[in-house]
Write a structure and sequence with these properties.
homodimer; alpha+beta; Glycosyltransferase; Immunoglobulin-like; 3 domains; seven-stranded antiparallel beta sheet; 17 helices; 17% strand
Chain lengths: 623, 623
């Protein structure tokens, strides 16, 4: 196993690029405050006062703690990047005190079970979300510790983790269980990193090693609870076979991806090659067979789940926002663990498309599901909406953005001893282990990025050359770099001097993308991409019926602008629009529509539905 | 309101056509016996012995009684058509005695509640299936009475209906409720017809009139039961507004269509014009906006439900077999109630395609869901399978076929005083009210049908001229008929003599069908039809990748044969097959596949998956 990379702390990256920067700011200014307000309004904050009694309104729910924990994590991350925000610091501090006040003498910390069903602790691990909520609180506590240096939240969660370790484990008398909604595995790794306590890594490893073993814990639990559970239920929770034997990504997509992240984290920290090998296979299953072009995962709303290889319907796509964010994190871990750029390519795809599509530019409205085809006929139900919503009853996605967007800068860079690695050449500065770099340029809207060294020293600067890039060049202090990339990274090891400049030029072409012929939903269709950005047609620019437009593949597309999206390159081209010869009939025989030529304007998929209600076409009918 | 038509008793029709006849026979010989065996094996028959106790295997289920009732109805219908089948008669008789033996002193007859939850009678009308099971038992009892003349089963169900009438109604002290799964409304109309008792029609009318009124019964019930129910739950059960205000077909498709049938039945029997008007609107909503080309209903597995106008995805199509059978019955009622052929056109479409596709030619395997696109990527889950199954845990579809197929002949003909009306010119004989006709010909495989009068008398013979038929002609005793159809029927009123011959020639062309442009799923696609039959491509005839084949619309298709389907016209044509340039990648840029010309063979959709596992393409990628 090669030496792993690790993320650069997001507080060490300060972006000034045209895409991420505005999202980080809107998160700080809008997403976090509005999510705090929603948590207050819905009772999620008051739940920690432990004052709820049966018959009162706002009955706590089993996943509420996780939502508020994610907002707290986001507050801590935002505070770390904006240390002068005293209001934020004070607010966070008071919430942390509130959360800690809900901890029970034995370390247990869950407001649902403490208030609503105190006798049901740890009795339905499959369905209820105790370990999941615990994991998110741990992540919040670690972020709080890193942002403030205060150990109070961290120590509280260590006590909770210790309490959990008395309940779960291989020892007789303990539950041989593991989470029904994975997440705590990756959180325990963070807790181990923050505290230096190996026992938390051991507990994470236990949860991963035990999962899916026979006799199956969940089946035994279901028998105890007289609930019905079968193989497909186990698959939905990735508990049908031990994780090292799993090679197809199955079940609830967010649960699956959180598990895979935890597996990668444990593998990286323990040098467990068989575990990393399973992660490789599972990643391949997702990225090469079960992922939408936008980096979205989980094709069906039924169980919010992965389905089968190449089943990627556009109209009924679920592609949950949380799953995109989870996939980006999984890809990021894999890039760091293996050093291979293919994983960073996938991470970038998901970040710029499926992740950012889930939240409005203003930062206050969200998609839970990210369809690729939307029109008047779209079947909207539950979390599946054609317009972003301010909140959901199950509001995992909005609160995920609170903690995800502040980390965007951290995705751009990785590091290991003596090496700084650029995954995404977004403009900004990074400083890490004495190495300091400033990047300028307009990436991803254009492919030019200049890396200027702000410090001197001997280290390796490696820069990803994306797989989608057909032509690239680099000049170091004006001189062409002849070196070729290895594993997708151009790695320059030298004594860097402050003022050294590396000018990178990545060719960003407008590409016509096709899907594997086994993806029936995309047969006869093309998609348009410009570098890492997937483009799409909205009816706002193109009139109604965007999914019926015929876009010839063999034309010369050009860059232009779309109204209301100044500064964002649009793709301009031509298409055929068919006349409606249906006479209003649902089906009709032997009448062929005529065609007229029209101009089309495509915008980045992630930016759709930011200018009002609109139809959407991502995969375009072609010839 | 014009004078309604009524079905010709299916025992009065004896078919010898190339499609229905074999299905009726396989039902008698295979579907019914194998369903009886399954009912025995799973405990559905023994449940009527009332010997089950907690802890025993084969715990009765809330819908079990309905399954066995449907099989009994099928047995009675088959017996009526095969009165010499002594074994069937004896078996049926003993089962009827068994069922009657489970009736309680107060008339109540439900084996689940009697054995498993005796204190829960009528306590959850929304979710449990008491009234639904009662309705199917009533239908079985009526069929038994008509087949045997014995009143024992009928009288038992009258007692149960009387018992139900003491529980439900507008009077104080009664439940102001109505079924959570509609069906009893249409059954009560049959009971009223068989007994001449208006009180059963009144009870049916009560259930229909009360439905969806405010205050909402289901919401009140949910509050009593402390269960969660919202507007979308009410819509799933068509209980969100009173039925006369409903104009969009919503919710669980089988429930919806059973309701609409009951509404039509009540409207026909009471002359209720506002109710029939609602039926017209609901029919239009289904047939013109929410129905698959095969006559399948219910686009989503989520709630087994109708979705939105023009949302008709082919890969995730649910199109439950029971819904097709229900739609055919609804269309049949509407044709009879209004005399308009448009309804019979829709009935025929559903019969020959979506209804017959749900059962194998052998009669022993079933689709629950009828997808229009099937390949290796198909997402199979629960009842959604790519191959027909011998049974399902929730086995409504197999048992529906037991009672549906024996009625096929009855669909072909309607009657009213002095008029015999042919909806489908399938070969066979019909005799009704002294009128007797023999039809010869190969319909629907060809369009020639000769009607020969076997009796003499003055009456009207009316024959549907299908909307899909562009050219037709008729000769009466060799002389061209100049008369034109009215409301889609050619009606010849005269003194018929035995031996009179009417020769009908309907032009059956191979038609290229397109969908309304608002059906995004079918944009750029065509379907092939031959008369009323929808055709489809299987990989068995065309090799893998049938959904990616490009079938030019402007070619001359011809008729031929497909292997293993002798006597069935296949459609032969040409298509383009694309080369795979994916290199195994899920998505790829700027590579265009080449094309080669191939011959294609399409078979009737209803016959797919009768020659082994196969891919399926119904809507074909075109140019």
């Amino acid at each position: 196993m090669q030496q792993s990379f690790f993320p650069v702390d997001p507080t060490a990256v300060h972006l000034s690029d045209p895409v991420f920067t505005a999202r980080i700011e809107s998160c700080h200014n809008t997403t976090i405050p509005s999510s705090v307000a929603k948590c207050r309004e819905t009772g999620r904050i008051d739940s920690f006062r432990l004052a709820w009694r049966e018959g009162m309104p706002k009955r706590p729910h089993i996943f509420w703690d996780s939502d508020f924990a994610k907002v707290l994590e986001g507050m801590a991350l935002a505070l770390a990047q904006n240390p002068g925000d005293k209001t934020l610091a004070d607010e966070l501090d008071s919430y942390v005190d509130l959360v800690i006040s809900a901890q029970q003498p034995d370390g247990y910390l869950n407001t649902y079970f403490t208030q609503v069903e105190p006798d049901k602790r740890w009795s339905n691990i499959f369905e209820w979300h105790e370990l999941y909520c615990a994991g998110h609180l741990m992540e919040a506590a670690v972020a709080h510790f890193r942002a403030t240096g205060s150990r109070k939240f961290l120590d509280a969660l260590c006590r909770y983790a210790d309490c959990i370790a008395t309940v779960f484990g291989t020892e007789p008398g303990k539950l041989h269980g593991y989470p029904g909604h994975e997440e705590i595995e990756l959180a325990l790794c963070k807790l181990a990193d923050a505290t230096g306590e190996k026992k938390y890594l051991d507990l994470a490893k236990y949860f991963i090693d035990e999962r899916g073993k026979k006799p199956n814990f969940f089946l035994e639990e279901a028998e105890r609870n007289k609930t019905w559970l079968d193989e497909s239920g186990l698959r939905n929770r990735q508990a049908h076979i031990p994780v090292r034997e799993q090679s197809d990504a199955v079940g609830h997509s967010v649960r699956a991806l959180y598990l895979y992240i935890g597996m990668t984290d444990v593998a990286m920290r323990t040098g467990d090659a068989s575990l990393l090998d399973a992660c490789r296979k599972l990643f391949e299953s997702v990225a090469e067979k079960r992922m939408y072009l936008i980096g979205g995962c989980g094709s069906t709303a039924i169980g919010e789940a992965f389905t089968t290889d190449y089943d990627l319907p556009n109209d009924t796509a679920y592609a949950e926002s949380c799953a995109s964010m989870a996939f980006a994190q999984f890809a990021r871990r894999m890039a760091d663990a293996t050093g291979e750029a293919q994983y960073a390519d996938a991470m970038e795809l998901s970040l710029y498309n499926g992740c950012l599509s889930g939240i409005s530019l203003e930062g206050d409205r969200f998609f839970y599901a990210n369809m690729l085809t939307v029109d008047d006929a779209s079947f909207l139900h539950g979390h599946v909406t054609a317009e972003r919503q301010p909140w959901f009853d199950c509001s995992c996605c909005p609160t995920s953005y609170c903690r995800f967007l502040p980390q965007l800068g951290g995705f751009a860079w990785s590091q290991r001893s003596g090496e700084l690695r650029c995954n995404i050449p977004a403009a900004g500065t990074v400083s890490c282990n004495g190495m300091q770099i400033r990047v300028t340029g307009g990436y991803p809207y254009n492919g030019n990025a200049t890396f200027e060294c702000l410090s001197s020293g001997t280290f390796t600067l490696s820069i990803r050359i994306p797989a989608w890039c057909r032509n690239w060049s680099a000049k170091l202090n004006g001189k062409t770099v002849e070196q070729q990339p290895e594993n997708g990274y151009l790695s320059l090891s030298r004594e860097w001097k402050a003022g050294d400049k590396l000018e990178l030029a990545l060719e960003l072409a407008i590409d016509v993308v096709r899907a594997n012929p086994r993806v029936t939903a995309d047969a006869g269709k093309i998609a348009l991409m410009h570098g890492p950005l997937v483009y799409a047609l909205e009816s706002i620019d193109n009139g109604p019926g965007v999914n019926a437009l015929i876009v010839p593949a063999d034309q010369t597309f050009s860059l232009g602008e779309a109204k209301g999206l100044a500064g964002v390159p649009a793709i301009i081209g031509e298409a055929w629009r068919e006349t409606d010869v249906s006479n209003g009939e649902l089906y009709f025989r032997n009448r062929k529509p005529a065609r007229e030529k029209v101009r089309i304007t495509a915008i980045p998929y992630a930016l759709w539905q930011n200018r009002g209600k609109s139809e959407l076409a991502t995969w375009l009918r072609s010839n």
